[in-house]
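Example: D-alanyl-D-alanine carboxypeptidase.
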Amino acid sequence: MSVPGCYIEAAAAPDYTAAMEERKKLEIQSNNTDNWPEGPAIGAQAAILMEVNTGTILYAKNIDEELYPASTTKMLTCLIAAENADMNDMVTFSYDAVHSVPRDGSNIGIDAGESMTLEQCLYGIMVGSANECANAVAEHVAGSLDDFADLMNKRAEELGCTHSHFVNANGLFNEDHYTSAHDLALIAGAFFSNELLSSIGNTARYHFTPTDTQPDDFYITNKHKLINGEISYDGILGGKTGYTDEARETLVTCASRNGMKLVCVVLKEESPYQFTDTATLFDYGFNNFQIVNVAETDNYYIPEDTSFFASDNDIFGYSGNVIQWNDDDSIILPITASIDDCTSEVSTDVTGQPSGTIAVVNYLYNGVSVGTARIITGSSQTSFSFSNTKTDSKITPNQSIYVDVKLIIIIVSVVAGSIIFVLNLHAFIQSLHYAGNDPQERKRYKRRQKLLKQHKLTYKKPRKR
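Written out as structure tokens, the predicted fold is:
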């Protein structure tokens, strides 16, 4: 009903473009690191570029700010499902799974009472962003949506997430459902470490065929432009889109080049810039950083000449160095830097590390952690197998006494091996604080002295020759 002489002024629509431009002025925290490649200004409220295998953060913009993830939540849903159920399980869609989500929300049209395999449901979630599939999977895995949310929070905590709380499996808006760019990168790192999930998450188009429990024949297409080919980018491994009015555009993507596996997370952006932001950040990462193998480049903790601690094949079939780097460990550095530009911290706490680890070295470049490497025992053979002959324990006069030479060899080798290991460990400790006349060695000596003080050890500096 209208009132003469009065009018109601309509609320002005939010100017999302202006807000995006303002967000470009926000601080990029990674740019504060000395000699770190300068990262690009983007319109997202928060963004991160992280190397998965090392955990190195290459680009950081408000990475711990708590924001709404929208449908990127579904990556955690799929991860938990893959870890707790079989891909051939039949998932039945309950009435609540189908009808508890908005009709205008993302769905693929599955009706209550129908069923599909868990694997088909995951394609529905990752390719079609289907809310009803996420709900049905949650009920199948945990028994109820609430119980599944508990699983989500528990798994997120296990992955190291500290700024997240989840209340549903699909990411629909709820004030108590939030995460951060860093937390989402950790979740994505686990997701893309699963080969099947990576394949599902990189599917551009999927075909559902009719079955006895699902009668429709239809295709779904991925809206992620770096996956469906609308934006071409080499090395894409998969990703997930997201949108709600409150979250705005969100995007998670993984790509691999030159031995580096990068995850990019963009939160609170405007379309289509979530895709161009991602491509820009990937270019920044791949063009400005390099992967450096520690075993091939660092002679600081383990001498380059390890011949004293190496052997050819002996009678037990063992050969190699007694102490060595784990060959697969690498760090990430700017292309203008080398491992000599890093500082390092040694930890002898190897709890949770693979068997054979005796120390873990954490590398830092101007205060930024760029990866770790393990120092391990060189022998992979921890036991020996011999065929011993049984002999009668009773000895009669003039009877020859047989000595079990193999057993003696075993005993002697164990004792000798223990001595070698102690000597080797002593040499390793000595290598931490050796300094000669070389200026570089004296510089390293000071760093080692600092390390020894941290471990409350003392050592007399060698006299100059």
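The CA atoms of residues 264 and 278 lie 6 Å apart.
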